């Protein structure tokens, strides 16, 4: 098959081996697949994969790896020990996890689990979901990004007495904004240096957007939540004031620490960023403020399925995140363009 193949740190479109479905697996044809920042992190920071003992991904510079884990595909064939649940040509998607002989791999992040940047790839039949509506495949592929924000927003369970603050308006920040809006949280404050991202955040449901080059996001949050902070910020939580729930969606070293130092006492922080090179945190400040920091992890199957349904049914509109499509030959250049914060939230590969 043809694919945009990662090997030796370089991505190029060429021929590679066809995937063969094993027990419980489905062979599918890629219809659309989004380029995600985690694809770039995977190829740029192999040391991060080396430090991860979960076994979910496996970077091998000497093997062909076909990335791409945000996809819409159609059924082509089945491996052994499958139920053959759907007819050939049925559109499907899935949480990007492939069950293999020795465990589970993230689709698109190991040689044995090729992803949607190729003509064909494999799914675990038991995890796959039929696309239940006629939503275009390009938009269906964005659902996986929404599942991350949906998982964080659901786990956060923001109450009526809390005001959410989303730091970073890339795809995951936008998914958090959209999910918070759908779940009824608000007002939602979204923060990003890039004007186009702030505009997209508004389109996805943010009530207030902040350029941190002009105004501290914490000052803006305080003004929105309870007015001037000076009379109350040192009351050690004794007053019944709105609480802050921060969603860190940047993934750059120093951002999470800046949140710890800048946020209110008692803030709950959900860190989706996770810079591959690690970070340094002022834990004593976090302790004195009584902060609660929840580190990432991917969405559960339940959260993935819920968000997938929300997108396919149109209850979460992902159109503002969609930029443009490229073919396999355009993937290397599109990956470079995806590094630009001024670009669209999602460039979609259509093999």
**Oligomeric composition of the shown chains:** single chain
Element string (H = helix, E = strand): EEEHHEEEEEEEHHEHEHEHEHEHEHEHE
At the fourth level of CATH, the homologous superfamily of the largest domain is: Medium-chain alcohol dehydrogenases, catalytic domain
SS-based class: alpha/beta
Strand content: 25-35%
| CATH class designation of the largest domain | Alpha Beta
What are the low-pLDDT stretches, counting only 5+ consecutive residues below 50? none
Principal-axis shape: globular
Q: Could you tell me the radius of gyration in angstroms?
A: 21 Å
Measured between the Cα atoms of the first and last residue, the distance is 10 Å
Give the proportion of residues in helices: 25-40%
Largest sheet: 7 strands, mixed
Mean pLDDT: 93
Number of domains: 2
Q: How many helices in DSSP terms?
A: 11
User: What is CATH's topology name of the largest domain?
Assistant: Quinone Oxidoreductase, Chain A, domain 1
Strand elements, count:
18
> What is the CATH architecture annotation of the largest domain?
Alpha-Beta Complex
Layout of helices and strands, plus pairs?
Layout: E1 2-7, E2 10-15, E3 25-34, H1 37-44, H2 46-50, E4 65-66, E5 70-78, E6 91-94, E7 97-100, E8 103-106, E9 120-124, E10 128-130, H3 137-140, H4 143-156, E11 162-167, H5 171-182, E12 189-191, H6 195-204, E13 208-210, H7 217-226, E14 243-248, H8 255-262, E15 268-271, H9 283-289, E16 292-295, H10 301-312, E17 322-326, H11 331-338, E18 346-349
Parallel strand pairs: 11-12, 11-14, 12-13, 14-15, 15-16, 17-18
Antiparallel strand pairs: 1-2, 1-4, 3-5, 3-9, 3-18, 5-6, 6-10, 7-8
């Amino acid at each position: 098959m043809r694919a945009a193949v990662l090997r030796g740190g370089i991505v190029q479109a060429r021929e590679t081996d066809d995937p063969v479905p094993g027990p419980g697996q489905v062979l599918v044809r890629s219809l659309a697949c989004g380029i995600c920042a985690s694809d770039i992190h995977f190829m740029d920071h192999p040391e991060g994969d080396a430090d991860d003992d979960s076994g979910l991904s496996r970077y091998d510079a000497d093997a062909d790896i076909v990335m791409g884990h945000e996809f819409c595909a159609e059924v082509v064939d089945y491996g052994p020990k499958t139920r053959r649940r759907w007819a050939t040509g049925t559109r499907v998607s899935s949480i990007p996890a492939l069950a293999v002989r020795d465990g589970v791999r993230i689709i698109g992040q190991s040689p044995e689990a090729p992803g949607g940047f190729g003509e064909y790839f494999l799914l675990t039949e038991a995890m796959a979901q039929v696309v239940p509506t006629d939503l275009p495949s390009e938009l269906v592929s964005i659902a996986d990004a929404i599942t991350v924000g949906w998982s964080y927003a659901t786990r956060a369970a923001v109450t009526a007495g809390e005001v959410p603050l989303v730091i970073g308006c890339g795809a995951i920040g936008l998914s958090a904004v959209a999910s918070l809006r759908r779940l009824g949280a608000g007002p939602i404050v979204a923060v990003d240096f890039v004007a186009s991202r702030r505009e997209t955040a508004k389109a996805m449901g943010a009530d207030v957007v902040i350029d941190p080059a002009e105004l501290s996001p914490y000052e803006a949050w305080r003004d929105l939540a309870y007015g001037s902070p000076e009379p109350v910020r040192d009351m050690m939580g004794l007053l019944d004031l709105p609480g802050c729930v921060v969603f860190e969606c940047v993934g750059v070293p120093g951002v999470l620490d800046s949140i710890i130092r800048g946020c209110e006492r008692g803030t709950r922080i959900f860190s989706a960023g996770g810079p591959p090179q690690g970070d340094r945190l002022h834990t004593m400040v976090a302790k004195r403020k009584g902060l609660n920091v929840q580190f990432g992890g991917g969405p559960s199957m339940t959260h993935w399925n819920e968000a997938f349904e929300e997108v396919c049914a149109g209850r979460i509109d992902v159109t503002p995140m969609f930029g443009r499509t490229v073919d396999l030959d355009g993937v290397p250049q599109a990956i470079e363009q995806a590094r630009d914060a001024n670009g669209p939230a999602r460039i979609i590969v259509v093999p």
